[in-house]
Amino acid sequence: MNIKKHIPNLITLINLFCGCVAIVYISQGDFLMAFYMVCLGIFFDFFDGFFARLFKVSSPLGLQLDSLADMVTSGVVPGYVMYSLFLKSANPHDVVGSVYIPFLGFIITLGACYRLANFNIDTRQTDSFIGLPTPANALFVLSLPLVIEFSNSLMMFEVLSNFWVLLVITLCSAYVMNAEIPLFALKIKKFTLKDNVLQIVFLIISILMVILLQYIAIPLIIIFYVLLSIINNLFLKK
C-alpha cells in the first residue's frame, strides 16, 4: 500500500473538516472561531496540492476531492455567514422578510460552486487566476462580522447591517469569483526584484494594513488585490 498517495487526500479532508466545524461555530454565533477554522482550512487547502506535487501523486480523484472540500469551506461557510448577516439586518416585525430574505446570502455559495466547477475544466488557470479564488472570497465575507464586532465604529455597524449594502456585496462576491478578470499570481517563481515588484508591493502594503487596521484590513486587502490586478492588466495591454 502506497501511503504517500493518500497523504494529500487526507489533508484535503482535514480542510473539509475545518469547514464543517466552521459551520457549527457560525450556528452558535461565534464568527471569530469560524474565521479561524476557515483560515486553517485554507492552510490545508494550500498544502494538499503542495504534497501532491512533492510526492508526485497528483490524481483526478485529488482534484475532485479538493473542489468538494473547497465547496464547503469556501462556498457553504461564507454563504451561511452572509445568511446570518442578512438575518441580523432584517426587520423583526417583517415576518416574511426576516424568514426568506436571509437566504439571498447563499447566492455566494452558488457563485462559489460555479467557479469551482469551471476551475476544474479551465486550463488557463494553472499559474494565475481568472476571477477571485473562492478562499480569498471566503476570507472577505467571513471578515465582515469581525469588522462589525471589533471596529467599535457605529458607522461600520450601520453600513454592514444595511440590507442593500449586504445585497450589493453578495452579488459582487458571486460575480467577481466568475468574472473574466485575470489576477496576478502570488507565487514567486523567479527570485529577481524586476519579476516580483507587484507581489512585493502587494505584500508590503498588506502587512502594513493588517498592523494598522487589524480585522478591517482583511476585506480591504482582497479589494486591493483585485484593483491592483485590474490596473496591472491595463498596463500590460499598452
UniProtKB/TrEMBL annotation:
<dbReference type="InterPro" id="IPR050324">
    <property type="entry name" value="CDP-alcohol_PTase-I"/>
</dbReference>
<dbReference type="InterPro" id="IPR000462">
    <property type="entry name" value="CDP-OH_P_trans"/>
</dbReference>
<feature type="transmembrane region" description="Helical">
    <location>
        <begin position="7"/>
        <end position="27"/>
    </location>
</feature>
<keyword id="KW-0808">Transferase</keyword>
<feature type="transmembrane region" description="Helical">
    <location>
        <begin position="197"/>
        <end position="228"/>
    </location>
</feature>
<feature type="transmembrane region" description="Helical">
    <location>
        <begin position="154"/>
        <end position="176"/>
    </location>
</feature>
<keyword id="KW-1208">Phospholipid metabolism</keyword>
<keyword id="KW-0444">Lipid biosynthesis</keyword>
<comment type="similarity">
    <text>Belongs to the CDP-alcohol phosphatidyltransferase class-I family.</text>
</comment>
<dbReference type="InterPro" id="IPR048254">
    <property type="entry name" value="CDP_ALCOHOL_P_TRANSF_CS"/>
</dbReference>
<keyword id="KW-1133">Transmembrane helix</keyword>
<keyword id="KW-0472">Membrane</keyword>
<feature type="transmembrane region" description="Helical">
    <location>
        <begin position="99"/>
        <end position="117"/>
    </location>
</feature>
<protein>
    <submittedName>
        <fullName>CDP-alcohol phosphatidyltransferase family protein</fullName>
    </submittedName>
</protein>
<feature type="transmembrane region" description="Helical">
    <location>
        <begin position="33"/>
        <end position="55"/>
    </location>
</feature>
<keyword id="KW-0594">Phospholipid biosynthesis</keyword>
<keyword id="KW-0443">Lipid metabolism</keyword>
<dbReference type="InterPro" id="IPR043130">
    <property type="entry name" value="CDP-OH_PTrfase_TM_dom"/>
</dbReference>
<keyword id="KW-0812">Transmembrane</keyword>
<feature type="transmembrane region" description="Helical">
    <location>
        <begin position="129"/>
        <end position="148"/>
    </location>
</feature>
<feature type="transmembrane region" description="Helical">
    <location>
        <begin position="67"/>
        <end position="87"/>
    </location>
</feature>
<dbReference type="Pfam" id="PF01066">
    <property type="entry name" value="CDP-OH_P_transf"/>
</dbReference>
